[in-house]
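Let us work through a complete example step by step.
Step 1: write down the sequence.
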Amino acid sequence: MQTRFPEWIRRSWASGNDFSFTRGLVEDLSLHTVCQSARCPNMAECWQRRTATLMVLGNTCTRNCRYCSVPSGKPEPPDPEEPLRVAAAVRDMNLKHCVITSVTRDDLPDGGAQHIADTVRSIRSLCPETTIELLVPDFEGDEHAIEIVLTSQPEVFSHNIETVERLYPAVRSRRYTYRMALGVLRQGSVHRPKPIIKSAFMAGHGETKDEVRQTLCDLLEAGCEAVSIGQYLRPTPKQREVAEYVTPEVFQEFEALAIELGFQFAVAGPFVRSSYRSEELMQTRFARERMDVVTG
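Step 2: predict the structure and record it as tokens.
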């Protein structure tokens, strides 16, 4: 177990007018962000760029993963006005690309799929030029719920594998399984029109390089085309400890390995998160060509 904070894990404090603008917008519209709830280390940088990853279906998750600081418990019913407020936030932030995620809602019959789809359609109505990335939960493998989300036609369909298969029982809520996560991505990969399929996972939980390679191969087999790999950072003392601080050089190895294995887009680094600078994916030739196919 490594307890000393390495020198490459440093982030600036949040400040400035642009940060205040983002915070004010989120508060005024009564929205939640994964930036705040998950204590993301990139929050200062992103909010200063007037962008945030909005989280729908409330701020209470029905699962309790050992790495995550999003509150767990019994959630409130979905707010039917939330999709419109999310769309207003995307408009007011003037986003060309937005990432929408949600807590896991096992208490709802469809896992919140219709609410997420309604959010996409609200953004489309208010911001027709904005591309949308959906980072979704596993819906307990419910193919009907996943289909509801897919038919809203996000440009990017994302589900995080989070860690290697061996460490799933130690890292994730027991209701998550590695194979179910792959199934979510696989269903997205056969949907037409096909969105870009993306996933992400965290290094630093004690995985080996061989397990990282196997995870990348499993994601490719499931149809995944884009991947992000970041460093797990313990949000609070309540979450599991960091097993290892992976060096920037090793992250470069992971990124090169992903491209070598066949990913169209890969990014890895200590502060990389699934939604961090996600707009860079949309600027690649691969993404532009995919959008041309989708729009005809």
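Step 3: interpret the result. The mean pLDDT is 93.
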